[in-house]
């Protein structure tokens, strides 16, 4: 490591000004659970580190009239334990609860989970299923962009040198909407997701699916929406038979995507399980 | 070099740190608190666990400068001044929950962070509480037994 200057930003303004001054010579740090390892292995070589973990504005969960806003420096523990996020958002809390270990969840942040663009980022599938908007800031101002559009490639985020992820926003869920999540890891704790699926649905009294969004983790270069499966399910009655049929549809989609990869057979089979668990959980949450 | 202020085991410090230092380096090299162990150095094993502002964290994943104004507890901060062990430490001894000892400081601090928030955890909650701490000698049963016992000792009026 050859860091020459370290800045612990007291407020958002100081963070933005420092980032604007040092640009590509600098790196942001919050939880540190990824970047400290990268620094150790010299995968990143910044001259300046800017710590945003204590910036109050980035560390809040806000419930506005029509939407929820989660600051980029909010930790997984805070999301998991938050009483502000109601049970219909269980999928997001569950994804946060299943990250790493207590130590990692106490440090790691939702902004870091997004900006590192790992294919296996646990909170990305639920955020995609929630149709989240990313709020990006720089000294020049603020821009809002659909979360999915920030992902350029594995490990590559569409932020300019002087921009930071400020927060993530999504519409509040209504009574007939809920978010489910299921993850397949190789062990209980400290497991990297092999597959994660999150499903956000809206159903009417007849169990008809009015709207559905499916977020996938570890089934592509980064978190993805399963749009053709969503189209297949929308406007149909969600009985057990149809859920099984939808799972088979999703399986065939994943088979196409993973063609030629050794993980194809396992992942296309296993995704049926995570999908069914996530959609059943969402239906249960609505009925509860 | 940069100067930072922090509290470690109840004592205030003003320390010169190198910008490249991690919190574990500060604790071991600047404050000579060698109870904080470095195992994997990647946040997987939990041997370097400490309590920072009430939460257990792996000190190998925190940069030293980030600990400005933090309140830190390491394993050395648990026993009383007269040398009496903390009830969790005593329970680990009583139950034979330690063998080579390398994971023990981290285990005990994870247990403390858990019991501070949840004084009577179930065995499942205890296992979840120490899920970020690996032990390669004893297996985990004795450690879980010890934490259960510590909960009872603490309830009877330990510190």
Q: Layout of helices and strands, plus pairs?
A:
The complex is a heterodimer of chains A (288) and B (159).
Chain A lengths: L4 E4 L3 H11 L3 E4 L5 H6 L7 E4 L9 E3 L3 E5 L4 H6 L8 H8 L4 H6 L2 H6 L8 H6 L3 E6 L2 E6 H4 E3 L2 E2 L6 E8 L5 E8 L10 E9 L5 E9 L6 E2 L1 H7 L6 H18 L6 H24 L1
Parallel strand pairs in A: 1-3, 2-3
Antiparallel strand pairs in A: 4-5, 5-10, 6-7, 6-10, 8-9, 11-12, 12-13, 13-14
Chain B lengths: L1 E7 L2 E7 L5 H8 L18 E4 L2 E4 L12 E3 L13 H8 L9 H14 L5 H7 L11 H15 L4
Parallel strand pairs in B: 1-5
Antiparallel strand pairs in B: 1-2, 3-4, 3-5
Primary descriptors:
heterodimer, A: 288 residues, 5-stranded antiparallel sheet, 4-stranded antiparallel sheet, globular, B: 159 residues, alpha+beta, Ubiquitin-like (UB roll), 5-stranded mixed sheet, 5 strands
Largest sheet, spatial ordering of strands of chain B: 2-1-5-3-4
* Domain module tally of chain B: 2
Helix vs. strand class of chain B: alpha+beta
**Helix proportion range of chain A:** 25-40%
Largest interface: A-B, 29 and 28 residues
Distance between the termini of chain A: 52 Å
Number of strands of chain A: 14
Order of helices and strands of chain B: EEHEEEHHHH
What do these coordinates show?
The complex is a heterodimer of chains A (288) and B (159). Chain A has 288 residues and is of the alpha+beta class. Chain A has helices at 12-22, 35-40, 76-81, 90-97, 102-107, 110-115, 124-129, 147-150, 227-233, 240-257, 264-287; strands at 5-8, 26-29, 48-51, 61-63, 67-71, 133-138, 141-146, 151-153, 156-157, 164-171, 177-184, 195-203, 209-217, 224-225. With 159 residues, chain B is α+β, with helices and mostly antiparallel strands. Chain B has two domains: 2-77, Roll (Ubiquitin-like (UB roll)), CATH 3.10.20; 87-155, [2Fe-2S]-binding domain (DNA polymerase, domain 1), CATH 1.10.150.120. Chain B has five helices and five strands. In chain B, strands 2-1-5-3-4 form a five-stranded mixed sheet, sandwiched between helices. In chain B, helix 2 packs across helix 5 (141-155). The longest helix of chain B has 15 residues, at 141-155. Chain B starts with a strand and ends with a helix. The interface between A and B is medium-sized, with 29 and 28 residues.
């Amino acid at each position: 490591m050859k860091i020459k200057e370290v800045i612990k930003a007291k407020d958002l303004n100081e963070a933005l000004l420092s980032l604007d001054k040092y640009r590509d010579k600098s790196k942001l740090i919050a939880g540190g659970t990824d970047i400290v390892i990268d620094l150790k292995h010299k995968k990143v070589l910044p001259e300046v580190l800017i710590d945003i973990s204590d910036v109050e504005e980035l560390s809040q969960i806000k419930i506005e009239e029509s939407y929820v806003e989660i600051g980029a420096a909010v930790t997984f523990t805070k999301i998991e334990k938050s009483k502000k996020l109601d049970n219909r958002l269980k999928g997001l809390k569950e994804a946060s609860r299943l990250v790493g270990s207590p130590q990692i969840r106490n440090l790691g942040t939702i902004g870091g989970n997004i900006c590192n663009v790992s294919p296996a980022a646990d909170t990305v599938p639920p955020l995609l299923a929630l149709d989240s908007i990313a709020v990006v800031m720089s000294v020049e101002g603020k821009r809002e962009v659909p979360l999915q559009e920030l992902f350029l490639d594995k490990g590559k985020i569409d932020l300019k040198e002087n921009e930071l992820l400020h927060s993530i926003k999504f519409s509040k869920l209504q009574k007939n909407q809920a978010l489910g999540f299921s993850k397949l890891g190789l062990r209980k704790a400290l497991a990297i997701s092999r597959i994660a699926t999150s499903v956000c649905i809206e159903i009417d009294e007849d169990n008809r699916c009015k709207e559905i969004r499916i977020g996938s983790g570890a089934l592509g270069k980064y978190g993805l929406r399963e749009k053709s499966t969503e189209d297949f399910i929308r406007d149909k009655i969600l009985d057990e038979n149809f859920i099984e049929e939808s799972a088979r549809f999703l399986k065939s989609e994943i088979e196409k995507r993973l063609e030629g990869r050794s993980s194809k057979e396992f992942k296309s089979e296993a995704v049926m399980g995570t999908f069914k668990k996530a959609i059943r959980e969402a239906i249960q949450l609505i009925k509860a | 070099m940069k100067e930072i202020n922090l509290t470690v085991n109840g004592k205030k410090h003003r320390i010169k740190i190198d910008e490249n230092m991690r919190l574990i380096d500060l604790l071991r090299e600047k404050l000579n608190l060698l109870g904080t162990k470095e195992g994997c150095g990647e946040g997987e094993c939990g041997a370097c666990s400490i309590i920072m502002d009430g939460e257990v964290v792996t000190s190998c994943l925190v940069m030293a400068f980030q600990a400005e104004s933090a309140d830190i507890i390491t394993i050395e901060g648990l026993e009383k001044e007269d040398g009496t062990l903390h009830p969790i430490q005593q329970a680990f001894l009583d139950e034979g929950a330690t063998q080579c000892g390398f994971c023990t400081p981290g285990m005990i601090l994870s247990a403390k962070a858990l019991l501070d928030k949840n004084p009577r955890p179930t065995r499942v909650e205890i296992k979840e509480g120490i899920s970020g701490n690996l032990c390669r000698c004893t297996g985990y049963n004795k450690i879980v037994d010890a934490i259960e016992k510590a909960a009872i000792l603490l309830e009877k009026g330990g510190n």
